[in-house]
Amino acid sequence: MTKTSAASPATVAFFVQAALSFGLALVAVVVGIWYLPVDGWVRGFLALGMLFLTTSAFTLAKCIRDRQDENSVVSRVDQARVDKLLSEHDPFKAPAL
Fold first, then answer.
1. How far, in Å, CA of 71 to CA of 8, rounded?
2. For the chain, domain boundaries
3. Where, by residue number, does the polypeptide cross the bilayer (predicted)?
4. C-alpha angle 65/47/26, rounded to 5°?
């Protein structure tokens, strides 16, 4: 019987790289909006759009993660049921009449 392994967790280096790239991108957009040669209301509109985009990206990532976790649990339960049926099956037992 083969045992399925869970996905390996993200390494610290991957987490740091993801956090740094997010921070750098956010700072770059904020600086770009700040130095944009337009009126204040245009900067405000762009800043609100960036804020909405950032929060919706976090929400989407959480929804995707939750769906993957849910599918993982369901597949583990299904696999446990199959393993139980296979372990209880006796191919040499005479069929009941």
1. 17
2. 12-88
3. 12-35, 41-61
4. 55
